[in-house]
Amino acid sequence: MSKLALNGGEKIRTKKFPPYLPIGKEEFGLVKEVFKSAIFSRFLGCWHDDFFGGPQVQALEKEWADFFGVKHAISVNSATSALYCAVGAIGTEPADEIIVSPYTMSASATAPLIYGAIPVFADVEKDCYCLDAKDVEKKITDRTRAIIVVDIMGQPYDPKIDEIAKKHNIKIIEDCAQAPYAKRGNKFAGTLGDIGIYSLNYHKHIHSGEGGIIVTNDDEIANRLRLIRNHAEAVIEAKGDKNLINMVGFNYRMTEIEASIARAQLKKLPKLIAQRDKNIKYLEEGLSKIPCLKMPKVRENCTHVYYQHGILFDSDVAGIHRDKFIEAVKAELMPIKLRETEGIKIGGGYVKPLYLSPMFQNKIAFGSKGYPWSASDREYDYSKGICPNVERLHYETLINHEYIRPGMKKKDLDDVIAAFRKVWENIDELR
Ligand SMILES: *Cc1c(COP(=O)(O)O)cnc(C)c1O
């Protein structure tokens, strides 16, 4: 008789895992104050005191900058908007090249397109999954304007990329959406490059529903970020700014309600990360005893805040494909559809390597004639095989899950470990 749930055996667990709900009375208290004031936003898109937003927005920005030890923090309505602002603020020109990662949320690779620049993909590291410094250096040309590094799954990018950027005089935009509170040495992730961005969307370590924060120590860049956030073209004349490059503004402003929630969330960040850290230690202790699994590497001199946990699967040891293994683990636990309210994500790989998406495959982004690629006299290759590490991770070796989330208790973690272990112990059923 078969033991594995996939083959009709009994499941390890038939109960849902606890939901991840970091919002509580602290957030509600601040939101109530905003309601009482009836001012849900105080931004004005002209040169005026209110160009900088209302009291909650300004308090959040001050608290964020102090917390992360950086000169300027600028709130926006999403990390996607934050990336767009960053690409604009560094003065990106059409047909410039920006080096991006293929293994990240799509916006970190599409942001260059907004300013007519060309995303150039470099491969990721086999063990840390962030941009690979050697491949980044190979991709640099006389047109490279910036590198968008991503602290993927919760750990800071390779410091060698800082040296490369310095040597070639190009900017680093650090996408820290998945790594708030991670550290390299005594500096926080997000503050390692020229501009850092954080996300406050519902899925992240801390959230305000939607939201993003941009940080920088550069006064001029900070000024340009604030202008792009809030109708630059209508502001600069009265403000007295002369530099017109990329001063087409947007409305990327955060509301007072989101800002108040984010303020309470920021205070909880250390505690929420500590819970993830405790969970990961316990999980890794159990999972690392399974011979076909290898726990992810934490970069030297860095801490990891485990937005997700990327385990490497060895199919030679297991004698089956990763996808079969995951299918069997999933069958031992409760099936999920809605990620936040019903359960927790586990799957093979992370996102499909971004260059394989229809937009890059067809080079159709704005209009029908291939802009911005058509604005360049160079050819760009997005074919399968350009980043072998990411393709191998995605299709063969990476198992990615979120069972480290705060709210998971010892019993819940024991069930996860038991599900993996049961599949390993009965792997002959799958061979
Ligand atoms: C979530 C995420 C984003 C986008 O965040 P939004 O606030 O939803 O726009 C960008 N980059 C990475 C790596 C992310 O994980």
TrEMBL record:
* Catalytic-site annotation from UniProt: 204 (proton acceptor)
The record ties this protein, via CDD domains, to: AHBA_syn (cd00616)
Gene Ontology molecular function terms on file: pyridoxal phosphate binding; transaminase activity
Q: Which residues form a coiled coil?
A: none
Q: What is this protein called?
A: DegT/DnrJ/EryC1/StrS family aminotransferase
UniProt keywords (A-Z) are: Aminotransferase, Pyridoxal phosphate, Transferase
A Pfam entry, by short name: DegT_DnrJ_EryC1
| Classification via InterPro entries | DegT/StrS_aminotransferase, PyrdxlP-dep_Trfase, PyrdxlP-dep_Trfase_major, PyrdxlP-dep_Trfase_small
Which PANTHER family does the record associate with it?
Answer: DTDP-4-AMINO-4,6-DIDEOXYGALACTOSE TRANSAMINASE, TRANSAMINASE
Give the family this protein belongs to, as stated in its UniProt record. Answer: Belongs to the DegT/DnrJ/EryC1 family.
The alphabetized list of GO BP terms reads:
polysaccharide biosynthetic process
| Lineage, uppermost ranks | Bacteria, Candidatus Galligastranaerophilus
Modified positions (N6-(pyridoxal phosphate)lysine) are: 204
The protein's organism comes out as Candidatus Galligastranaerophilus intestinavium
